[in-house]
């Protein structure tokens, strides 16, 4: 082999290594101690997160599993177990009762926006909106995203704030952004 052939082979191998390395960098972050696979849907990933067991139980109680396993795409602002623990004592237990299914569904669908909105999409909408991105939820009311320092927050209909703690967890049918507070319509 000529030196130029070795050089081309070396460049090709370096390019391959960069592509493999680049895709590794683009992987989803771990959530709740579990890998979040882009090939899985929102529900299949959420059930693996130790930080989202309350959310998964609530989605099941509200009968929203099949919807969130559907093609979407959906943007889900997913509250952690600690977010649910911030609610007044007894709230989660009350919401999970069958007679409160409509209220629970109302709260959960307030955390979902139709379409896939990455952090970059939210930032672009905020820039176009004078610093705030107003998003209409599947529930019908709006959430407002805004930035303070390096962090993004959501303001709900009641004026409550929730911080996006992990952004851009891509799913086969949308994207999840982990939030630290339950949003209230």
TrEMBL record:
<dbReference type="GO" id="GO:0005615">
    <property type="term" value="C:extracellular space"/>
</dbReference>
<keyword id="KW-0732">Signal</keyword>
<dbReference type="InterPro" id="IPR000782">
    <property type="entry name" value="FAS1_domain"/>
</dbReference>
<dbReference type="InterPro" id="IPR036378">
    <property type="entry name" value="FAS1_dom_sf"/>
</dbReference>
<feature type="signal peptide">
    <location>
        <begin position="1"/>
        <end position="26"/>
    </location>
</feature>
<protein>
    <submittedName>
        <fullName>Putative surface protein with fasciclin (FAS1) repeats</fullName>
    </submittedName>
</protein>
<feature type="domain" description="FAS1">
    <location>
        <begin position="39"/>
        <end position="183"/>
    </location>
</feature>
<dbReference type="InterPro" id="IPR050904">
    <property type="entry name" value="Adhesion/Biosynth-related"/>
</dbReference>
<dbReference type="Pfam" id="PF02469">
    <property type="entry name" value="Fasciclin"/>
</dbReference>
